[in-house]
Amino acid sequence: MAHRLRPVELDFTSYAPVRLVFAEEIAAPPEEVYAALADDVAGWSRWFSGVARSASTDGGRGRDIRLTGGTRFVETVLAAEPAAHYAYRGDTTNAPGLQALLEDWRLTPVGGGTRVRWMFAADGPAAFRFVMPMARPGLGRAFRESVRSLDRLLAEL
Length: 157
Prior knowledge:
By secondary structure, the chain is α+β, with helices and mostly antiparallel strands. The protein contains five helices and eight strands, in the order βαβααββββββαα. Helix content is 29%, strand content 41%.
């Protein structure tokens, strides 16, 4: 059953009880990476291994995401700065224990490519806060594999 998450804004990344940050450099330029993140939300399942289905909603101001395994998120886009910054917060989910969520993607040019940084900022009860740091290796691996997959996909276009 879906439940409503606490609405947070971009500053949540500075005080969220759980903040997991991952970064990877890829060959694709920031403009192409941003387009895949923000303009082609429906394409996330082609490169992000944890995403089963995704769609942009509300004229690009929202997202409807279904992860492999059945977890669902309805999200609001909070930042959409071409080639630089894309962020969204979770509004509703069926994930147990989660009380607030913000995902923040930052793109920085490096050489001819991009440094992709993803911050997962979240809150939940004490047990959630305790367990989430243990998920860091798995989330980090999923991030690296997915961003590399995105880089390969963009190279083929």
